[in-house]
Design brief:
Low-confidence stretches: none
Family: Belongs to the aldehyde dehydrogenase family.
CATH class of the largest domain: Alpha Beta
Helix content: 25-40%
EC number: 1.2.1.16
Oligomer: single chain
Structural class: alpha/beta
Largest sheet: 7 strands, mixed
Number of strands: 22
Radius of gyration: 23 Å
CATH superfamily of the largest domain: Aldehyde Dehydrogenase, Chain A, domain 1
InterPro entries: Ald_DH/histidinol_DH, Ald_DH_C, Ald_DH_CS_CYS, Ald_DH_CS_GLU, Ald_DH_N, Aldehyde_DH_dom, Aldehyde_DH_Superfamily, Succ_semiAld_DH
Strand order of the largest sheet: 14-15-16-13-12-18-19
Organism: Caviibacterium pharyngocola
Strand content: 15-25%
CATH topology of the largest domain: Aldehyde Dehydrogenase, Chain A, domain 1
Protein name: Succinate-semialdehyde dehydrogenase (NADP(+))
CATH architecture of the largest domain: 3-Layer(aba) Sandwich
Number of domains: 2
Shape: globular
Length: 481
Amino acid sequence: MDFHHLLKTQAYINGEFISAKNDRTFPVYNPTTQELICRVACCGAEDTDFAIQAAKTAQAKWKTYTAKERSKILQKWYALIMQNQEALAYLLSLEQGKPLAESRGEIAYGAAFIEWFAEEGKRAYGEIIPQDRADRRLLVIKQPVGVVAAITPWNFPNAMITRKAAPALASGCSIIVKPAPETPLSALALAELAHQAGIPAGVFNVLPTAQAEEVGEVLTASQDVRKLTFTGSTKVGKILMAKCADTVKKLSLELGGNAPSLIFNDADLDNAVDAVIASKFRNSGQTCICTNRIYVQSGIYRAFADKLKEKVRSFIVGNFDQENVQIGPLITENAVQKMERHIADALAKGAKLTLGGKRHALGGTFFEPTILEDVSQEMLVCHEETFAPLAPLIPFDTEEQAITMANDSPFGLAAYVYTQDISRIWRVSEALETGLVGINEGVISNEVAPFGGVKQSGLGREGSRHGLEEFLEIKYLCMKV
């Protein structure tokens, strides 16, 4: 696969690919082979200041474009991404490790946000309020918030950028993207296609760096950056939230999850198993909304466990370009060690290992898809996000018990419910303390629906018409006539 026309190793600032000011670089490795792919510009404080000023200058003009003019440019970006889907997918898998089929899906998923917001930007409607006095008129308009800083993760290095950049650009904001150091190449490839699409210089910028704190300090302290949008851990999200307090930035935070799946006795068993697999094992379990805790009612516990084990046992683990591969490597050695720690803790507290449980024979950061049975609520796996191909099964007896255990978490991003009882669907969905609920469905995210959590899983929503509002300010106009 020829992807080299999209392989960029310099920062993209003010419409140009440039080296970091001090010529620093950092390595990017292929997690499948542990081999060096390339070295990429390592931006610092000076580069960040330059990007902020470029974005500020560009945004002053970009906001004067009509929504239709911005839409046409975004549609070109969308079309170029889809034309280069295969190359983008290969590059994504090369730096992230997920199977090629999943990467193709991510490119299409990410591009869908650009297509959606290219149209939705035309619908940033204001309102006319019935006046309080005969000689006044009351109006509301919506305006772009200004320069946006976006800090994105490694697990979806394409889609987590487009999900933020598309509404920002559609609303008239400029944006500075700081991608994860593990996966900067997908971000820089998007910058190349944004350039080809005619997005004006300074409107879309990418700052690759291995010096996250240095760049983050400048972004959060700057008066000119009016919004920060971040996807990542709750720990880092809290730090960023605190650092943005001095300048009272608008915030969107999509943080950690610990998604429960609740499978009731009356569930369609085959559908529940397939949906749990789709949720749990996508991207080797490295998604923020993947099922982390699988609660199964006692009446079907054995049947569900056996069917799950039968299907997971057949998974193909391997390199991203291997035919029919379903499980790739974990992103780092630390991720492997966390999975090992969760398994050891569960076994020490009485859980039973029924499948997997050790590093894969392929070596590196490959790990066998693993199932634990008879897991209990006090185990680490019920309280920490594993982010790995580990499926813990927790039995329950009553609906109330399941809801209580599901809500026993500081996180509240996604949850899943499997039942044929329509009354239970309403009761349980409303009782779960999460921002998203999948009902008899394991793959729930798309561009037309709002994505985001409650509790310590974050603030704000991405996607849907609500995602556009995150990048707009409301201005009230009171006019004497």
